[in-house]
Structure formats: structure tokens, C-alpha cells
């Protein structure tokens, strides 16, 4: 009987000791895990500092206190991660890295020449105007005001956007890179936010205001030849509040009578391999980021046009012909990281770095 | 006496079993609470998952129209016909309030609209003359087409 009592007490004691050991083990794990988390955070902040100063990231395991962290930056997924380790326990934190090209700091960025030509052509620009080539103003009654003053002869790194090497052949800014950029942009978004139009005959594509476009972020028109075909955007895409849509075309884009009417927080942007042109017969207004790999022309503005946003043209910008009265107002939405859909894919590896979407990874 | 000892022993065994059972339940709970935070919807690495298949959309589903050299409007009359039709469709498909806002934003003195159309007509004549001399002039073709589009917009967009 005594033995039974002793055995019972032994079992009881073992259970209590076992629980105590288990709790201690878990507490120790938790403490190590917390330390690993904060070491990972320290590593991430260190990496942010390196990238912000355009310095390469240190490789391998880096000592931090009694633990270590390891950094990894994937350009393909735009993800910076830091894995902290303490006493064998690891935790990883991640952040999304975007490069905001310098051109987004300007109202107007021109890769070559800026020409204002015609009868009674008049423009006003509020925001930086950076021109890599020459500025020419000619014609009867043509005038322009720039606030602040425009700059010419600027390095093209500050006025243009090169298409990153999407096809992986070691050369950037090719038409094939642009095609792949368009596809990758579509693939990065949910299917219901994308309209992908294959246009093998390079037909003209006409986009009219349509309720079905209210939730669409990207319309990508893919032709079969560089700069072939024209996409006409007539008035707007959805005439809805909070519209934030980008039209991407391997050809030209022609924005006819831009009319954003009392829409809250709306933006319709364009990315074209070919030319961008805009014309209106009535007073037109829109908020847009306009990027053209070729020329940009504001022509046949019969009444009065206003564009708020950024105009970036890798080649020439023209305010041409008669009756043009165009105003440009700079918007810092893009420079502050609020890029229109698709534009983060143009960021490449240079520019102002923006960090967003902190998360714990694995 | 033996019976009392037996009951006492049995109770101790039951208590021991209860403690062991409770202890293991609490350990499980504690393990779950102390487990590292996991991102709730951790998307698999894109490189491992691979890009989603891209399926061409049907433009008509979004009211997008395509026109090639065979069916694209070429004359002012053809542009007028197309623009009048599309603007009529918009008028009925767009919420009334939004349509009123559109009308308000383009509202101007009818004389001013007439003058604008005259300016467009003059520009059209100019580029037609250029194209007559040089039929391959791409700039002239593009300008002419845009001017005809604008002329049609000027004629049919404002509600009379």
C-alpha cells in the first residue's frame, strides 16, 4: 500500500515537473523568438538606410548583439527581407521597395526638345519643367509661363523613363521589354481589374465611358508592331469617382476631349510606346500621369485644356498649331508613392526609393 | 482500513490523471499563444507560383470598339454618324446627374461653340490642302482625323 502511495505521489510530482519544464521551454522559445523579431527589424531598418543612400546591401549573416540577421533584396518581386536569428530561432520581416523615377518630381519632363509653335498658342506650367534638349517658342502670339522657371540641357536620367529589361536579355528600353512590361502588369493584377486586348492587325481602338470600366485598373492594348495603331480615349473611361485607371498601348494614344467631371479622386493615366496626343474643342480637364516613349503633342486644343499630374515624354514635346491654350499643374501623388496602376513596373533600379507594405514573411 | 486506503489511493491517481490531462491541454494552448505570428494570408512566393495565365478580354464587354482600314470612319459624315450614335448611347447609359455635370462642364455661349467649329473647319481645310499636295503626309492624316473627331464632338456632345 505504501508503494502505491509513493508511486502515485511520484506520478503527481512528475506531472508537475513536466508542466514546469514545458512552460519554461515555451517561454524560452518565446523570448528567443521576440529577440529574433527585433533583430530582423533592426536588419530591415539598416537595409532601408543602405538602399536610401544607393549603397549595396551587406551579404551573409551580420552580427547584431547576441544574434544575427541576413538581408535579401529581390528586384523581381520588389521585396526586401530581413531574417533575424537568435539562439536558433528565426523570424523574417519584409517590405516592398519601389523606385520612383525622378521624372515624377516634375510637372513636365522632356527627353529631347520642347516646341511651342503656332498662332495664339499659350501655355502655363505650375511645377518643375525639365528639358534635356532645347526649348523653342515660335509663331504669332505664342507665349508660355513657367513657375518655377524651366531648365534646359538637363541630364536625361532626370527627364526620361527607360523600360526595364523585362525580357532578360541584358538590354533595357527595347520594344520587346515594353510588350513584356504590359503583360507583367496585367498578370500582377486580379483578372477583374484588367482588360487585355490583343490587336494583331493594329486596328484603332476606341475607349468610351463605360460602367464596366469602373473597377478596371489597367487596359493594355498589345499590337503587333512598335508604335502601330492608335488607341482613342474619348472623354473618360468610367466617369466614376475614385477612378484610377492606366491605359497602356504598344501604339499611339489619342485622348479626345478629356472630361473628368466632378469626379472625386479620379485619375486616368497613359503609357504609350508611340506618341501621345491630346485635343479638345470644349474646355477639357483631367488628372493624369502621361508617359510616352516617343513624342507628346498637345494639338488642336480649340478651347482650354488643363492637365493635373505629370507629363513625361522620352522624345519631343509639342504644343502645336493654332488656338492651343493649355495649363499644366503638378501633382505630387506619384512622387509620394501613389503611382498610377502599372507605373511601378517602370521604376527600374534608380530613382527615389519608396518603402511600403511592411509584413512578416516566411 | 484497506478499503479507506484504496479509496485514498484511487483519488490520488484520479487527481494525478486530471493534473496530467489539464497540464497537456494548457501546454497546447500556451504553445499556440506563443507561436510566432504568422501572416494570415501568406501569398506563396510569386516566383514559385508563376505568373497567372493572361487571357485576352472581349473588348465589346467593356464598350470598347475596334476599327480597321476597312470599317474606320474616313469622312466627316462617317465620323458624325459614329459620334452621334455613341453619344446617344452614353446619354442613356450614364446616370442622369453625371450627364448633367458633363453638360455643365462644356457649357458655353452657343456663339462660342459656333466659332470653335469654324476654327476646326478652317484647320480641316488647311490639312486637307496639305494632304492633297502630299498624300503620304502622316502628320496631316493624324491631324485631319483628330479634327474631324473633334468637329463631330462639337456638333453632338452639347444638348441643344
Report the sheet-strand fraction of chain A: 35-45%
Task: Summarize the main sheet of chain B.
Answer: none
Beta content of chain B: under 5%
Report how far apart the termini of chain A are.
56 Å
Which residues of chain A sit in consecutive blocks of at least 5 with pLDDT less than 50? none
Q: Kindly name the structural category of chain B.
A: mainly alpha
Radius of gyration of chain B: 39 Å
What's the shape of chain B?
A: rod-shaped
Oligomer: heterodimer
Instruction: Provide the succession of SSEs of chain B.
Output: HHEHHHH
What report would you give on this structure?
The complex is a heterodimer of chains A (362) and B (160). Chain A has 362 residues and is an alpha/beta fold. Chain A contains 2 helices and 24 strands. In chain A, strands 5, 7, 8, 10, 11, 13, 15, 17, 19, 21 and 23 form an 11-stranded parallel beta sheet that branches. Chain A has an 8-stranded parallel beta sheet with strand order 9-6-22-20-18-16-14-12, with no helix packed on it. The mean pLDDT of chain A is 90. In chain B, 68% of the residues lie in helices and 2% in strands. Chain B has helices at residues 2-34, 46-49, 76-93, 96-106, 110-133, 138-156, and one strand at residues 65-67. In chain B, helix 3 (76-93) crosses helix 6 (138-156) and helix 5 runs antiparallel to helix 6 (138-156). The interface between A and B is large, with 77 and 69 residues.
Task: Write the SSE topology.
The complex is a heterodimer of chains A (362) and B (160).
Chain A: H1 2-52, E1 61-64, E2 67-74, E3 79-86, E4 89-100, E5 108-110, E6 114-117, E7 122-126, E8 129-131, E9 135-138, E10 143-147, H2 175-187, E11 194-199, E12 204-207, E13 218-223, E14 230-234, E15 244-249, E16 252-256, E17 267-272, E18 276-280, E19 284-292, E20 296-301, E21 305-313, E22 317-320, E23 325-330, E24 352-361
Parallel strand pairs in A: 5-8, 5-21, 6-9, 6-22, 7-10, 7-23, 11-13, 12-14, 13-15, 14-16, 15-17, 16-18, 17-19, 18-20, 19-21, 20-22, 21-23
Antiparallel strand pairs in A: 1-2, 2-3, 3-4, 4-24
Chain B: H1 2-34, H2 46-49, E1 65-67, H3 76-93, H4 96-106, H5 110-133, H6 138-156
Helix pairs in contact in B: 3-6, 5-6
